[in-house]
Design goal:
heterodimer; A: 124 residues; mainly alpha; 84% helix; rod-shaped; B: 302 residues; alpha+beta; five-stranded mixed sheet; 9 helices; 67% helix
Chain lengths: 124, 302
């Protein structure tokens, strides 16, 4: 395992410009795009931190697509790995916003109920 | 053996890359970022709130470190470091999300607890009201029973009095006057002239009187009053009436009337009820009256 990894590491610089021998990372591209879609659906654009992560993911995906077109699949793969991680972070950040909103709604409801209780108490 | 070979290979690889990077030994910025991010997350609340994702981040950082140790500042090392940063941030975000959820649930639970509290206090109040009503009911029933008892006691007393009057009416005059119920017995049936020993026939009559009086309200008091006609002196008649009243009183006590309920008093020739000039009038004046005083009013109904 280690050996194959290490030999790959050794081989890559040796191969130099022969990027064409690495296949286009289509699966990674699909994964990254799917993750950004999820983040958007969860409202990533409504949460500043999620919006930033999503933007990074989008930018890296388009850079990766350009790299694939240029035949630099190695660079595209690297960009897509990062893009996917950014998009996943955006998903989590969107969820955090949802939880915050739900928590705030609960707090508001509780306050409203207390007011109601208080008023009822005053009526008694 | 395997490790040794790996090390040899890594050294070879580092050497190759080292030439390209002009021998720099500083770690790549991505790796520095990853170390900083992980150290920050690890010292915060994340190890408690999201240990699983933080562990993944740690593994990712280890991968990056291993890659750097073996191969130096490669693109792979940088990518792995970048992933480590993102995974660390993800763990922090997920941890915070869980914390918010927990707080929200806490608020919701507290809200439910408030509702439960309100329901409990309302139902407790209801229980108290019910108990109060039940107690009131018991009190009413008790009052009703007391009322009924009192009523039946009074009815009994009235019935007894009526029965006693009816019995006595056969041989004595019974009338109601302000003193109470007055039973008048003629002196001639009780005593010989100028004597205070009871005649044997008188004793039979007095037995009936005693029986009737026992049926009277047991709380009533009685006074035996002796009267004479105007023949003879005042003091003589006073003494005679006193002795006669006492004789009747004592006999009644022997027939079962409680001694503390009955007293005797002589009135002599006073309080005549008829004309002393005629024999019939004098006969009427010679008499013994048994006064049954009404029951103490405080014991009757309010």
């Amino acid at each position: 395992m280690y050996r194959s990894l290490i030999s790959l590491v050794i081989m890559v610089p040796l191969l130099g410009a022969c990027g064409a021998s690495v296949p286009p990372p289509t699966q990674r591209l699909a994964d990254a795009q799917s993750a950004t879609r999820s983040a958007r659906e969860l409202g990533a654009n409504n949460e500043p931190s999620a919006q930033l992560s999503l933007k990074l993911a989008d930018e890296q995906i388009s850079q990766a697509q350009k790299a694939i077109n240029d035949g630099d699949n190695k660079r595209a793969e690297s960009l897509l790995v990062r893009a996917k991680a950014d998009a996943e972070l955006a998903v989590a950040q969107s969820r955090e916003r949802g939880a915050k909103i739900a928590g705030q709604v609960a707090v508001d409801n509780s306050a409203a109920q207390e007011t109601t209780n208080f008023n009822q108490g005053a009526e008694r | 053996m395997k490790t040794n070979r790996s090390i040899v290979l890594s050294i070879a690889a580092t050497g190759l890359l080292g030439f390209a990077a002009c021998g720099t030994t500083f770690p790549p910025q991505d790796l520095v970022n990853a170390r900083t991010a992980f150290a920050r997350a690890n010292s915060g609340p994340t190890p408690k709130s999201d240990p699983a994702d933080l562990h993944s981040a740690k593994e990712q950082l280890d991968l990056a470190e291993a890659s750097y140790a073996k191969d130096g500042d490669t693109q792979y090392t940088r990518d792995q470091s970048y992933l480590a940063v993102r995974k660390t941030e993800l763990a922090e975000v997920v941890g915070r999300t869980r914390q918010s959820d927990k707080e929200k649930n806490g608020v919701v639970n507290a809200m439910h607890a408030d509702e439960k509290q309100a329901v409990a206090s309302t139902s407790a109040e209801l229980g108290r009201t019910r108990t109060q009503l039940a107690n009131q009911n018991v009190a009413y029933v008790a009052q009703g029973t007391a009322l009924k008892d009192e009523k039946s006691r009074r009815q009994d007393a009235e019935k007894r009095a009526a029965q006693a009057s009816a019995d006595l009416a056969k041989f004595a005059t019974v009338k109601q006057d302000p003193r109470g119920m007055v039973i008048t017995l003629s002196g001639s049936i009780l005593f010989e002239s100028a004597k205070w020993d009871l005649l044997p026939s008188a004793q039979l009559k007095l037995n009936d009187v005693a029986t009737a009086l026992i049926k009277e309200d047991p709380l009533s008091k009685m006074v035996v009053e002796g009267y004479t006609d105007s023949q003879g002196g005042v003091s003589y008649n006073q003494e005679l009436s006193q002795h006669r009243a006492q004789a009747v009183r004592d006999y009644l006590v022997t027939r079962g009337i409680a001694g503390d309920r009955i007293t005797a008093q002589g009135f002599g020739l006073t309080h005549s009820i008829a004309d002393n000039k005629s024999p019939e009038g004098r006969a009427n004046n010679r008499r013994v009256e048994i006064v049954v005083q009404p029951t103490n009013p405080t014991l009757s109904l309010r």
